[in-house]
Amino acid sequence: QVQLVESGGGLVQAGGSLRLSCAASGRTLSSYAMGWFRQAPGKEREFVAAIDLSGANTYDADSVKGRFTISRDNVKNTVYLQMNSLKPDDTAVYYCAASLGRVGFQIYEYDYWGQGTQVTVSS
To answer: What are the beta bridge partners of residue 41?
Structure first.
């Protein structure tokens, strides 16, 4: 079993940047495909980005394409989400998740979840 802890959230002005980190313990992250999801108030949790085991392939939601970048460091057992050109619509709790299977875009495809980190973008 793997435990995931997100960090790096906060309050930022529109147009600004944040980098989220997801640190793993318990097992090495190199065994998992990883994803980031977010949930805004009153909305369902949605897919943001995903990365395969090696980091060679990444996938982004259309809403963040060109602005967000997912990456991983399997030596540091950490996954990152670099968020640039932030918009108020990006305000949400951001969750990282680990999948024992292949890269997925749906919540049910992930086996382990972090507790989330709040990102608030002011206009």
So the answer is: none
